[in-house]
Design brief:
This is Kynurenine formamidase. The chain has about 210 residues and is α/β, with parallel strands linked by helices. The protein has one domain: Glucose Oxidase, domain 1 (3-Layer(bba) Sandwich), CATH 3.50.30.50. The chain contains four helices and 13 strands. The strands form three sheets. The protein has a nine-stranded mixed sheet with strand order 1-13-11-5-7-9-10-4-12, covered by helices on one side. The chain has a two-stranded antiparallel ribbon with strand order 2-3. It has a two-stranded parallel ribbon with strand order 6-8. Strand 9, helix 4 and strand 10 form a beta-alpha-beta unit. It is globular, with a radius of gyration of 17 Å. The protein binds N'-Formylkynurenine and zinc ion (ZN) (2 copies). One zinc ion (ZN) binds next to strand 4.
Length: about 210
Amino acid sequence: MGTWIDISQRLDENVAVWPGDTPFSYKVNWSKEESGSVNVGQINMSIHTGTHIDAPFHFDNDGKRVIELDLDLYIGSARVIHLPNKTSIGVNELSSIDLDGVTRLLIRTDAWKDQSVFPQSIPHIQPELAAYLSELGVRLIGLDLPSVDPLDSKELSAHHELAEHGIHILEGLVLDDVLPGDYELAALPLPLVEADGSPVRAVLKKLP
Ligand SMILES: N[C@@H](CC(=O)c1ccccc1NC=O)C(=O)O
Ligand SMILES: [Zn+2]
Ligand SMILES: [Zn+2]
């Protein structure tokens, strides 16, 4: 027991939210006193808060919704790599890193220092990286950042290029204490039928 490392942001009113987006809230809507038996809670949040996956519908009206996503993307072996102090991440930044046989790639950038505050700027994924990664067999990319594109991007070129190359997106990971290496990942989305993404509880277990 105790072998799983939680790499998820905690969800309470302190969680950082995209500027202008729905704040996170949890409340007991029907208390034990009122109901006579139970506390019944309610959460209200944007899907793009904290640790979450994007479904292609987030940036493409014809894209897949969460329920249509392959669960295999979100459970299985993953490689964590450490790329601190980058302004962007492209083929150059990855060319010296061994990605042989990697299906799920998690990138620790350390660029979002205080995750209770939404960052001013982040290193972004260069759209050209999508073709390079898909050639290697990568199907999921995860980051310790709120987006794979620059925060002010409207085109979301990296989101689109990744999707076009069959690479799915996991955002808002907490990788502060995770050393580079190979792990078992579980980060399952909820069975949301129509949604453009889903919060996930992301966990890692070191592989021998
Ligand atoms: N692309 C971001 C989310 C995003 O762009 C966003 C999320 C909530 C409210 C506004 C957003 N973008 C606005 O331009 C993501 O994938 O999480
Ligand atoms: Zn998102
Ligand atoms: Zn995204």
